[in-house]
Structures are given as structure tokens and as C-alpha cells.
Amino acid sequence: MAAANQPSREMMIIWDFDRTIITEDCDRWVVLETDLTKLFHRVRVSLDWIQIIDRMMDALHAQGKTINDFVDRLNKFTIDPQMISAIRSAHELGCEMKVLSNANQFFIETILKNNGVFECFSGIISNPTVVDEEGRLRILPYNGRHFFPHGCKHCPPNLCKGIVIDKIRESDAKKRGIIYIGDGKDDFCPAMKLTEEDHVMPKEKLILYYILTLTKLPVNPKIHAWKDGEQLENNLVRLLSPQPEVLES
Hints:
Helix 5 runs parallel beside helix 10. The strands form three sheets. Strands 4-3-2-7-8-9 form a six-stranded parallel sheet, with helices on both faces. A two-stranded antiparallel sheet has the order 1-10. The protein has a two-stranded antiparallel ribbon with strand order 5-6. 37% of the residues lie in helices and 16% in strands. The protein is of the alpha/beta class. It has helices spanning 29-32, 37-43, 49-62, 67-74, 81-92, 105-114, 161-171, 188-192, 207-214, 229-240; strands at 2-6, 11-15, 96-100, 123-125, 129-131, 137-139, 177-182, 199-202, 222-223, 243-247.
């Protein structure tokens, strides 16, 4: 008998961003590190989170803050070196990767670029951003203001990650398997869209991990929990590397 390396099924990796690629939420500084606390508490009763961040960016613009100021603040976010290694290892193994997040395009792109891993991803699926004619950064909902309600109890009204997973799968001509990496409540919805041939990787001791491991809800994909970038990288390399095949001698 002889052994040969046989490629495992080709996979696509979908990454959450906040508390997954980075260890915190990339937009909470807008609330926690500015003098807009009173505004935040006034608008939070009537606006959803994306509308709140957009409103506060408008207020920061009125104070004279510029795009460059926001870039400087976002550049303070560092991705753990072990996580960077995990991202690069998966990329070097030829796996297409996308970010799927309820943060926003500008924040995510800026952080990925500053940490040198932006080119590892084929796309960022998140709430879009534009800079208007006055130089003001606008945060817009992914679904748009007039999008028909998706009715998902796990996801915010502006973005259902499960619907996005369905669209990604439908448009994938290669019919690849999916590895989903996340941490939060809104990551449960896309995890439930996966099949027995897919994989979900919840971060230990966070909401998605507890939902998947402590409840008796039926889950189709294989579960691989991780506590840090090193363990995540080991899991990814194991799944993505060619598998030995025993051949007849």
C-alpha cells in the first residue's frame, strides 16, 4: 500500500469581525471615547445601532473631526499576531475568505489594511459607508431603509447573516464547503444555514459557543471551538491541508 496526498473538499471561509478577528467591537469607541454620551442615551431609544453610529459620526463631523482623525483612531486596533498567522495560513493554502460583519465597511477595511491582511480577503460584506460632499462619513444599513423585513429573530433588522450565507452558497459555482468563524448571537443564524459537510468555529466562552455547545438545538455543521489564534490556525490548517489517501500497491 502507498500513501498519497489528496486535496480535501475545497472550502470557503466566512469570518465575523468584532470579537473574532479583533478582540473588541470596532465601533464602540465612538460611544466610549467621545463626549457624546448624552447624545447616545438620547437617540438609543429610537434608533438601531447602525443609525446610532451614523448619528454620532455626524456629530463628530460637526465638531471638526475628519476622516483622517477616524483613520488615526482605527489604526489603534491591533490584530493579535496569532490571528494574523491564522489568516495568512488559510490564505496561503488557497482558501477564499470573506468578512461578514454588522460593523461597517470603512472601519473593517481600515483595520485590516493597517494590520497587513486586507489582501487576504476577497470581500467585506457589511454595512456600507460613503463620504458625502461635506466630507462627512456616513454609515448606511446593509439592507437599505426600505428593505422588506427579513423576520430573523437572531439578527438585527439591517443585516441577516443567514440570508447572506444562502446567497453566497447559491452564487458559488464551485459548490465549496463553508467554514464559518464567529462569536455572537447573530452568528448563530448563519451557523444554522450550514450543512453536515460544513464547519462552524465558535470562539470559546462567548455567546455562539454557549448556544452551540450547551443547548440541545440540532446543529448540522461540525463544531470546532477555539480559544486563541494559535488553536484556530491549527484547526484551519488541519481542515484545509491535503488529506492522505491510501492507494493500492
